[in-house]
Amino acid sequence: MFYLNEIYIFGHGVETTQKLSGSTPHDQLLIQTSNSFVGLLLFVVGFLVFMVAFVKDREFQSFFAKGCVLLHISMALWRVNFERRLEDLAWDWPRQAVGDVVLALSWVFFLLYTWREKYD
Q: What is the pTM of this model?
């Protein structure tokens, strides 16, 4: 439906995609179920961010942004500590870790902008 195999090939290459897609039908079903839950989680997180955008309370938005910074830094640390040990994903983790740090910085810039508005 979403051409996941082609996306994996584009991101990781043919050989790694074959390894990551599972060797048995049971493994493939587990991976597809996991991908479905990841998609659902992304939808819920996007909906949550959309709802928070309409909250007028600056303290809550600041709390939410700090949580997002913590989440992105945690993901970057996870990639550095664990994903680099996986042979098939070893070359991919630096790019993703940098992406996580950049996303965390975007929330830090949001916090600095709201802090500047608060104390101006």
A: 0.68
The tokens for 84 are: 């680099």
Neighbours of 51 (CB within 10 A): 9
What b/e sequence results for 102-117 when a residue is b if at least 16 CB atoms lie within 10 Å of its CB, and e otherwise?
ebbeebeebeeeeeee
Instruction: Provide CB contacts within 8 A for 64, sequence distance 6+.
Output: 52
**Where is pLDDT greater, at 26 or 20?**
26
Q: Provide DSSP, 34-69.
A: HHHHHHHHHHHHHHHHHHHHT---HHHHHHHHHHHH
The residue ranges of every structural domain in the chain are: 1-54, 56-120
